[in-house]
Amino acid sequence: MTISKSSEEPDMVVRVRDVRKDFGDYAALDGVGLEIRAGESVAVMGPSGSGKSTLLNLLSGLDRPSAGSVVVGGEDLGRLSERGLAVFRRRRIGMVFQFFNLLDDLPALDNIALAGQLVGMRARPARRRAAELMDELGIADRKDIYPAALSGGERQRVAVARALMNRPALLLADEPTGALDRRSGEAVVELLTELNRVGQTLILVTHDPRLAARCASRVVEIEDGRIVRDSVVESAR
Fold first, then answer.
1. Global confidence as pTM
2. How far apart are CA 205 and CA 92, in angstroms?
3. What tens digit of pLDDT does each residue of 68-124 get?
4. Are the C-beta atoms of 68 and 91 separated by less than 8 Å?
């Protein structure tokens, strides 16, 4: 895989300040603060119900904080309209899910290209960009194959290519190896590690400490809606 390193100067991609997220009487997040610089790879860990997914939803603009501020890629998400948030997600955020979330009725290339077309890219340039990404991720020969006929590892690579389509400021990966066998999971770990090595800012939600140690330079641990530890991974690349 040959992915070009970004020439942009390092800056703060994520600034979360005093964030609280309430669901009725329950505080899913309570006074959370977090800063992530461009090019960092951060693993978010914690037990089920600790607030990991809520934090990811706030960073992606899928939800809004009850209090505090969330700034991603220079955008204060609390000041954006619903339409503005949708545009922000499509242009600035790449998302990789545990169960891929591919469209079953589109072949792999079109699944990827669609992400570009949704932000106004014409079909031909979008397909060209998608083909380049598939080549970089080692799945160029699968471009005409529908998701049901792809292996789990291939589907996750298609999902990663789709997430990278619009050159996102931030790549969010939610348990990206959770639905994969060991071999496919190892391949995705190597892919995420390489993407970060060449400059992609990455936030990884995982229950697996081995995955965090392989992919991340920092581990943020959440318990009961609060960050209880933010530590450097000693074995980081």
1. 0.86
2. 19
3. 999 999 999 999 999 999 999 999 999 988 888 899 999 999 999 999 999 999 999
4. no
As a whole number of angstroms, the distance between CA 184 and CA 74 comes to 35
What is the rounded distance in angstroms from the CA atom of residue 61 to the CA atom of residue 72? Answer: 9
Residue 139 CA to chain centroid, in angstroms? 20
* Structural tokens at position 216: 């991340």
- Cα separations in angstroms, 75 against 90, 94, 120, 202, 230: 13, 15, 20, 17, 24
Domain 12-232 has CATH 3.30.70.1230: no
Question: Domain coordinates of the chain in residue numbers?
Answer: 12-232
pLDDT given at position 187: 83
Give the long-range contacts of residues 138-142, CB within 8 A, separation 24 or more: 138/1, 139/108, 142/108
Query: Residue 5: its pLDDT value, please?
Result: 41
